[in-house]
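Standup, Tuesday
Yesterday: got the pipeline producing structure tokens again.
Today: sanity-check two examples.
Blockers: none.

Example 1:
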Amino acid sequence: MTLARVAAAARRSAALPLDLAVCAVDVDGGASVGVDDTAVLPVASAAKLLLLAEVSRRLDTGELRPDQPVTVDPADTAGGTGLLGRLSRRGWTVEDLCWLTAAVSDNTATNALLRLVGLDAPARLEESLGLGGLTVHDRVRDQRGPDDPPVFATGTARALARLVAHAVRGTMTSPEASARLLRWMRSNTDHGLVPALVPHDPYADCFPAPLPGGLLVANKTGTDTGVRADAGVVIGERRLAYAVVAHWDTALGSSTERAAVHAIRDVGRTLADYAARPGPG
């Protein structure tokens, strides 16, 4: 089983009316594969990984404290995914907001964290890690006006996979910051894309150590109009960092959305097959 099968699964979508970008990195063996992985596409909430990475870096350096209180301003409140805008309490800690962002992609928590660190900070981290194309353009908005950036975030499958690979290797600024980001990713409740057809244990306490005879997944998804994205790691006999991004014209109807989700899940199955098999030697 080689990574060529991952690429083949991605290329099966070529006849579909959508863009599908895929990147997979064997964290231990060094092999990688990409299909349209340098195409800059909207990646929706998958880019929240970059924000969480920056907060994790600051927690590591002491610029922020996990228990530091953050007041959620009315301007932070956004609809869509999340719970915070529906809860009565308005005072939370930095780490509370990170867990909410990672676990349920909470848009209100995301906006509060972005206000705390500033939009420029994730951009500086992206550059320092050499990711090559992952940008958070704006806070999450319920509606976008003509003067607002057209989307929350754009990026490439390669940049997302590289960020995850850094975290898995422990090179995302520091081993401690890397491990923290992986713990947050592990809490994600949306396993409907890449992990959907992957037999895995979402609750095994051993993570990120391998589960004997089984697979583990940690990921972050993104969902927006005409966009589905998933970036994460599959851990088995091998550790495989990945990113899959689908983009399509919503005028084509719901059948194209279903085709995009099916294509992503098909790629996920090949990622799992690769991760489950021992590497050479």
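Example 2:
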Amino acid sequence: MILRPLLLLPLLLASLHVQAEASRYPLTIQSCNRQVVFNEAPRHAVSHDINMTQMMLALGLKPRMVGYSGISGWKSVTPDMARILDGLPELAAKYPSVETLLDANVDFFFAGWDYGMRVGGDLTPQTLQPLGINVYELTESCAFVMKRPAASLEDTYNDLRNLGKIFDVQDRANALIATMQAQVAEVRKHLPTRQPRVFLYDSGEDRAMTSGRLGMPQALIDAAGGRNILDDVDASWTRVNWENVVERNPQVIVIVDYGEVSAEQKQQFLLSNPALQSVDAIKHRRFVVIPYVQATPGIDNVLAVQTLAQSFHSQ
């Protein structure tokens, strides 16, 4: 499993106590605004993006996978994850095509809207289902295709729970969820009442790519005892004008680290941006960096909450 030592022991203990019934097929799973029927556990699965691939591997599903996609084109992996990925082919460095999935005899695709799929694109549940490929959509990403409440850590737990049912590994999923919940609860026990104003910066110069209330950063900032300055914006990953950031005056800026522009380069851009010089976080140089895999739904959300809580309340 791709778990840090702090996650591993509690997971092993939890696995002794968390039991679940075996899946009974045909199995119906809710995925966004659709119901997906599985006649059996998938045997030739593909996950898209690093966070969803990490979820699959953490549940011990590598033997059921024929590959993954969407990692090396944008992100880097830790040595631990590289070792676990060894022997599992990357079918596409960025976006797979329908032909790529068909050539690999894929029967299950775990992806999300704006995480490998886009509305009206070639790769969607509607295009793949007639070809015998069931799609399970990342819960957080459902905001792109339906109305839904603000993002929460329950979105990640829901995905793990559903993967457990789909692949008949509910005991593993429940144990992992219990461990993550316990670790978040431990962080929250020690939070002060003060909630610093927080702005998440993903990328962009003319306008900022960030997260409104429907993106996972909303849940992470909440759990860590902060307040997303865009928590009234009814959007997931979205772009905003710098004027909006200045007006809301964040006290802390969270930088998402991935891609060709390093976190240090992003920080230097923010510090040198004339429009931001009156912002408290800029004046006091209060930045915290988290990798992409922690900022998006997945098992490393716990690490993000721990890092953010420590940074938000260290001063």
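Quick observation on example 2: Residues 197-312 form a domain with the Rossmann fold fold (CATH 3.40.50.1980). The first strand starts at residue 27 and ends at 31.
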